[in-house]
What we know:
mainly alpha; 4 helices; globular
Amino acid sequence: MTFEEIYALVKQRKLEMPEGKSTSELFKKGADGIGKKLVEEAAESWMAARFEGRENLSLELSQVLYYVACMMAEKGLTLEEVYKKL
């Protein structure tokens, strides 16, 4: 899955807010809840890079990307706005 596909998925979830989806629950908590998950996964990524193997690091980094996409959707940022800053 590409980042663009992840972003499209979370935007759809935010729009539809399907029951029973953890992403829907996260969007109910707003930027604060999403930010907490983003910081948590960033810290876990650092720990995985420092003390664990590539497989776990890949998992943790994929979660960071997912929560970045969630924050973008929450705040209405487009891919183009973020890509301009890369």
